[in-house]
Amino acid sequence: MLSPVNVSIESLNLMTLVPMLIPIVGALLILVVDMFKSEQDKSMYVMLSLLVLSIDFAFLLESAGIFEQNGTVMGVFDVMLIDGLAILSQFIIVGASILFIPLALTKKRFHEFAYPEFFALFLFMIAGFQFMVATDNLILIFVGLETASLALYTLIAMHNRNKSFEAAVKYFTMGALAAGFYSFGSMVFYALTGSVEINQIASVLAANNYADIGFVLIAVVFMLASFGFKLSMVPFHTWTPDVYEGSSAALAGYMSIVPKIAAFVVAMRLFEFLIHSGVVWLEVILYIGVVVTMTMANIWALVQNDVKRMLAYSSISHAGFVMAAILIGTTQSNSALFLYWILFSFTNLGSFSMLWISRQKNLPKGQSSDHSYDKFAGLVKTSPIAASIMALFMLSLAGIPPFALFWGKMYMISSAVTGGYTVLALIMALNSAVAGYYYLKLIVYMFMKEPVVGLAGDVSAVNATLSLKTIIGIATIGTIFAFLALNQLLEFVTVFVYNSGY
Question: Contact at 8 Å (CB) between 402 and 410?
C-alpha cells in the first residue's frame, strides 16, 4: 500500500501563481457583475479592468523583490517559475494592457466595447500570456498559449465588420495549425528526454551529446514553425496584414506588442540552449529566418496603400529584427530584446492609437479602407497637432535619433557586432534605412500634399476623448524622452536577464 504524500502549503510557493490568478478572478468578477447588473455603463468595466491590472502590476513588483533576494524561484510542484525573463515580460504584458484598456472609452459607441464579455475575455487573455512566460513546462506553455489565443480570436471577431470575421477565422485557422506544430514538437522532445521541462530537456540532450540529432531536428523544425506563426516570421506571416486590417486599430496595436513578447520569451528559453550547444543547422535556419523576415516585410510595406497594413508589415519587420537577439544568444542581445520591445511598445501603441481616434463606424460610400494614405493627406492643415504626433511616431519607428526606437536599434545592432555577427549587423542597419522610406511616405502625405476632398475629415477629433489623449500623450512622452531614462532602464533589464542565466 502506498503511503500518503504530505504536501505543505509553504512548499507549493503559491506566490508564484498569484499574478496569473488576479486577472482570472477579475474576469470572473466582471461576468458576475454583468449577471446581476446587466445594464452597467462600459466605463465601469474599464475602471474595473484597470483596477485588476494595477493590482496585478503591484504583485509583479513584489515578485521582482523576491527574485532580487532569492534568485530564480519555483512553485506549484516546480511548474511555475519566477525568473528575470518572466518578470520583465510580465511587466511589458501588464503595462501595455493598462495602456490599452482606456482606448475603449471613445466618443463613438463601438460594438465590441458595449459588452462586458470583451473585458472578461481580455483579462483571461492576459492570464494566458502570463502563464506562457512564467514557466518552462511545455504543457503549461501550451495551456497559456491556447487560453490567450482563443480569447484573442473572439476579441477580433467582436469588432463586428465583415473583415473582422474573416480576420478571426484566418487567425483561428493559422493558430490551430501552429498549435498542432507545437504539440508535435513537444511530443518529440518528450519522447527523446522523458521530460516536458525545458531545462530538463536541455540537460538530457547535453548528457546524451545530442546522439539523436535527427529527431532533435524534427522537433525544432516543428517548434520553429509554431513560433514562426506566433511571431509572424516569413513565410508564416501571411495572416498578419489581414488580421490587423480586420481588427480594430487599438487591438491591432496591442497584438503587435503583447502576444509577441510572450512568444519571444518562450523561444528564448527553448532555442538558446540549442544554439549554445553548437547545433549549427539551427543557427543557420534562424539566421535565414531573421534576414528574410526583416527584408521581405520591408519590401511589402513599401507598396502598401493602407496605413494600417503598412504598420502590420512594419511590425513583422520589427519582430524579425528582435528575433536576431535569440540568434545571437548573449546577455547583451537578450537585454537589447527587452529594451527594444519596451521602447517599441510606446511608439507602436501610439501609432495605432492615432489610427484609432480617426476610426469611423461607417465608411463613406466608395471608401474601402478606413486608413488609406489619402485620408492623411494634408493633415497638417486640418489638424497640425495630430500630424505632428503621428510624424513623431513614424520618425521613432524609422530609428531617427533622438527618438525612442533609435536607441533600441543601436543597442541591438551593437549586440550583433559584439557577438561576432558583423554581417547581420550590417543587414539590420540596411533594413532600418529601407524602412525609413515608407515611414517618411506617410509624413510626406501629411505635410506636403493637399487634403483629399471627402476623405481627410478631422482625423484628430472623431473619437478623441480625455482617456485617448492621455494614452497618446504617455506614448508621445515615452517616445521623445526615453533617452533620459535609457541607462536606468538598460541597467534594470540587464540585471534581470543576467541573473536568470541568459
Answer: no
Q: How many whole angstroms separate alpha carbon 251 and alpha carbon 160?
A: 13
All 3 cell numbers of residue 325? 537577439
- Burial pattern 73-110, b for ≥16 Cβ within 10 A else e, equals bebbebbbbbbbbbbbbbbbbbbbbbbbbbbbbbeeeb
Q: Where are the domains of the chain?
A: 13-359+371-499
DSSP 16: G
The answer to whether 176 and 150 have CB atoms below 8 angstroms apart is no
Question: pLDDT tens digits, residue range 348-383?
Answer: 988 988 887 776 655 555 556 677 888 888 888 888
- The model's pTM is 0.91
Residue at 333: amino acid letter: S
Round to whole Å and give the CA distance between 294 and 282. 18
Joined together, the cell numbers standing for residue 198 give 525545458
Instruction: Quote the CA–CA distance of 92 and 89 in Å, as a whole number.
Output: 5
Torsion of CA 25, 26, 27, 28, to 10 degrees: 50
Cβ atoms within 10 Å, residue 434: 15
Give the burial class of 489: count Cβ atoms within 10 A of its Cβ; 0-12 exposed, 13-18 middle, 19 or more buried: middle
What the block records as the C-alpha cell of 127 is 492570464
C-alpha cell of 150? Answer: 482563443
C-alpha grid cell for residue 489? 532602464
